[in-house]
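@channel sequence for tomorrow's demo:
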Amino acid sequence: MIFIVHLIIGAAIASKIKFLPLVILLALLSHYFLDSLPHAEYSIKNIKEKKWNKSKLDFLKLTLDLTAGLIIILIVYFTVKINHTILFAACFFAVLPDILVVFNWMFPNNDLLKKHFNFHHRIHFPEDKKIPAREKLIIELLVVLLGFLLLLVKV
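structure tokens (generated this afternoon):
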């Protein structure tokens, strides 16, 4: 899933749970669960392959994704009654696995990063499964709607 989805779900977790260790655990687990679902992703192949002269569009996609996600988190920060430390921790840990994947590309000889990459890759929804792009987008939109619903509903 893209960053914005992980950030919204992280914020939703933070809005419902006040115990920081549990928030961190659930945010991390939510990342792997969401990545196991069929979903659409944009290509960042040029970054992965370190083709820097061709990677401007990849960086633009990442930047737009992160910026949109951070704008939503700032809106939550200012409009939802929520512990800000818990909010930022949840959002950070919800995207941490993808950050570690990027670090693995940067430091391919690091055994710990390599183990995480292999774990993350095994859990990740297989790209070779033939599910129509429309269905993947619908799943992703449903997850986003669920995240917003959790943010808005008082429990």
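heads up for whoever presents: The chain has one domain: 3-152.
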